[in-house]
Amino acid sequence: MKKLTVLNFLMAAITAFLLTSCNDDRYEPVPVKLSDMSGNYKARLITSQGGKINEKIIDFVAKDTIITFKDFPMREIVKSIITDPVKADTALAHLGKIEYKLNYKSKINLDQNVIELTFEPKILAFQIPIEGVVKNAVVKLATKQKGFFVGYDWSVRFGLEAEKITVDGVELNPYQTIKYDIPVSVKY
Q: Which of 88, 97, 119, 149 suits a disulfide with 115, CB 3.0-4.6 Å?
């Protein structure tokens, strides 16, 4: 009986010691550097247009001052140009992968341990087959807010909008803005 009491006392003392040693542990963030932004990312993309919302996982690469999408999400853009779903799917299949490069400027905010990203979107130009005729499409992309590389979880967060689309110089009308939001991405 004495052995069991001594053993219980020792276990309680060790547990108390271990728990009190944890009380002094504090999270000390590693300060971000501009070079931390570079890398490959897997992101959750939320695309919305009007009342329609789609989610999917995409990849992008950040290097120097450019974010590169090797396969920019084109579904909503094509379906805005071609309203017939069957013809739109056919055009999407013919398009293949469209690459888009998004330029940005970065600035460190050490108070919040983030890198603030100010974007400089370019137009997205591509050729789209519409009923056997290849037409030139131009999408004007814009950013309404800054993006962030967050030092806490090493993720990039930002959004883009397709403000207007023109096909062979004619602006689509009516047209609802397409929003591309990346609320979280994981560096790998």
A: 149
